[in-house]
TrEMBL record:
InterPro entries membership: DinF-like, MATE_fam, MdtK-like
Highest taxon in the source lineage: Bacteria
Membrane topology according to the record: Multi-pass membrane protein
Family to which this protein belongs: Belongs to the multi antimicrobial extrusion (MATE) (TC 2.A.66.1) family.
Positions of region (Disordered): 1-35
Cell location: Cell membrane
Transmembrane segments: 42-62, 74-103, 124-144, 164-185, 192-211, 217-240, 276-295, 301-322, 343-363, 375-396, 408-431, 437-455
Keywords (A to Z) from UniProt: Cell membrane, Membrane, Transmembrane, Transmembrane helix, Transport
Chief place of localization: membrane
Pfam families: MatE
Name of the protein in question: MATE family efflux transporter
Length: 471
């Protein structure tokens, strides 16, 4: 790989002038196909990615809405259990991000077989990690819930949900790896169809298992696990078919799996810092009382939905930047950066208006409790104000991940976590319980933490150190 200053390689020479027609023959008509504009390239990838990404937090939203009507303790238990599960899956998101960047670079360099081989190796890694993490999470469920500060009925509900849902972890990690491979191939439509189908299946299963069979919160966990396993089977079939057509091997290879793990390690560190910040936020919310914790779950679910929606632009940036750098096209990579940042700020502003203005209406879907609704509305207003900045942050993350700038993102994650910890601890020590405490908690998370992320990634993107060229 080379830095932008190195002009060697296929992209460095001037294209040869087209040869004229042989003497005595008329010129054939030339049809010029205009190159797609940056906006069109972004939208072609981002719109299907948006549907796929939004479908994932819909799992949490559906679970929250259905479990919320079982009672405040059940919803608070779901808040803790879903935090643990999202943390486990989130730590493995490098399966998608690193695979997207690596596959996109190889596609940009013209090596489709190697691109699909990377995707297959990523899926084997995801399957192994998923089985190991599912077993560990099931065994450690009571301890994990206790660490987050829960006890009594809330803790019981959280452990029940965790243990019924962890069989879906191998499926979820396979979904990450397979989706990363398809995104690197600039196929965001297949993950959209699979994710949308999974979200619908999850909703139906939850309704049947929670209410029809009377399983309560256990039915919610089981329904989600079954939906995730079905999604994984579908995506694996799609990637395997493509790999066979390209001549890539399907059996696990230690070298390829290790290469994927090594490439993902910096992103694992970066994700760990993000998850630690979220865990610290949930721990702080737990100390504000059950109603505040339930309200925080509503805010967090809506924030997750908007974050994934904005992350669609980051997905487009990952694929386009990865391919541009793989093809040694610095100018195109810069153009993608500029335009996706503009889209991120604009989309964040629009979502902020919707989230804040409509909050008093949609919080009723999650809980009939007036205290929970009040806390949720106030927290959502704070989150809404911060959404334009969040759009900026998510796009910059996508650009740097697509460039393979994992080591920097790991260090930046540590710095931003260090900046956030004092703010969260101050809320835990001095904020009053209930709705006012939730306001201060979301000021700390959505404003202080996100501002630290915006500053670190913004300064990095202004330079050229992240622009490594070649496959």
């Amino acid at each position: 790989m080379n830095r932008p200053s190195d002009t060697s390689g296929p992209g460095s020479s001037e294209p040869a002038p087209p040869a004229g027609p042989p003497e005595g023959r008329p010129h054939d008509p030339v049809v010029h196909t205009p190159a797609p504009t940056p906006d069109r390239q972004i939208l072609v990838l981002a719109v299907p990615a948006l549907g796929a990404l939004v479908a994932e937090p819909l799992f949490v939203l559906v679970d929250s809405a259905m479990v919320g009507h079982l009672g405040t303790d059940s919803l608070a238990g779901l808040a803790l259990a879903s935090t643990v599960l999202v943390t486990v899956v989130g730590l493995c998101v490098f399966l998608a991000y690193a695979t997207t960047a690596a596959v996109a670079r190889r596609v940009g360099a013209g090596d489709l077989r190697a691109a699909l081989q990377t995707g297959v190796d990523g899926m084997w890694l995801g399957l192994g990690l998923g089985i190991a993490l599912a077993a560990a999470t099931w065994a450690a469920a009571p301890w994990l819930v206790a660490v987050l500060g829960a006890d009594g009925t809330v803790a019981t509900q959280a452990v029940t949900y965790l243990r019924w849902s962890v069989p879906g972890l191998p499926g979820m990690l396979l979904v990450l790896a397979a989706t990363g491979a398809l995104r690197g191939l600039q196929d965001t439509r297949t993950p959209l169809v699979v994710a949308a189908s999974g979200a619908v299946t999850n909703a139906v299963l939850n309704a049947v298992l929670i209410y029809g069979l009377g399983l309560g919160i256990a039915g919610s966990g089981l329904g989600t696990a079954l939906a995730q396993l079905g999604m994984a089977a579908w995506l694996v079939v799609v990637v395997v078919r493509g790999a066979r057509a390209a001549g890539a091997r399907l059996n696990p290879a230690a070298g390829g799996i290790w290469a994927n793990a090594r490439a993902g390690l910096p992103l694992l560190v970066r994700t760990a810092t993000l998850r630690l910040a979220i865990l610290l936020t949930v721990w702080t919310a737990t100390g504000l009382g059950p109603a505040a914790l339930a309200g925080h779950q509503v805010v967090n679910a809506v924030w997750g939905l908007t974050a994934f929606a904005l992350d669609a632009l980051a997905i487009a940036a990952q694929a386009l930047v990865g391919q541009a750098l793989g093809a040694r096209d610095v100018e195109r990579a810069r153009a993608v950066l500029r335009r996706t940042l503009q889209w991120g700020l604009g989309a964040g502003a629009v979502l902020g208006v919707l989230v804040g203005a409509l909050a008093p209406l949609y919080v009723r879907v999650f809980s009939p409790d007036a205290d929970v609704q009040h806390a949720a509305v106030l927290g959502l207003v704070v989150a809404a104000v911060a959404l334009p900045m969040a759009g900026w942050v998510f796009v910059l993350d996508g650009v740097l991940i697509g460039a393979g700038d994992g080591p920097f993102l790991a260090w930046a994650g540590v710095v931003t976590l260090v900046a956030y910890v004092p703010a969260a601890l101050a809320v835990h020590a001095w904020a009053p319980p209930g709705a006012v405490g939730i306001v201060w908690l979301w000021v700390a998370f959505a404003v202080v933490f996100m501002a630290a992320r915006a500053l670190t990634t913004g300064l990095r993107a202004r330079g050229t150190a992240w622009m490594v060229l070649g496959a």
